Amino acid sequence: MSVDTQRFDMREVILDRIATILQDVYEESIQEYSETYITAKLAFKSDPQLNELRLALERINRGEYGRCIFCKGDIDHDLLMRSPTAHFCEQCANVLRYRTTAQA
After folding, report:
1. How far is CA 76 from each of CA 18, 21, 37, 43, 49, rounded to the nearest angstrom?
2. Given phi > 0 = left and psi -120 to 50 = alpha, else beta, which region is 30?
């Protein structure tokens, strides 16, 4: 599967999660399933989960999605499917968890 195909697939996963939250939590009807329509619905929401999903869409549009913000390596596709807002590869996430628990 090409990187472009993966990004398209993840865009659909993210848009679906946003639409689900808007419908289930905010009882907003989604008449159109386009990125433009759905992101416009986010404009006045201060929901942290929706904000993370919006930022993931922005990373896709900039071509940065799926890369770790620390090491710039690829984030595993399975991890992105479980957590589409992931910023870190598993290795960097483990280092951060270790540092966090070591300091506590």
Report:
1. 22, 25, 29, 30, 21
2. beta
| C-beta separation of 40 from 55 below 8 A | no
Whole-model pTM: value is 0.80
Identify which of 55, 49, 58 has the alpha carbon closest to the alpha carbon of residue 21: 49
Condensed to tens digits (0 to 9), the pLDDT of residues 62-77 reads 999 999 999 999 999 9
Angstrom distance (rounded) from CA 27 to CA 62: 30
Alpha-carbon Rg for the chain in angstroms: 15
Per the structure, the count of domains in the chain is 1
Neighbours of 100 (CB within 10 A): 9
For residue 78, give the CATH number of its domain. Answer: 1.20.120
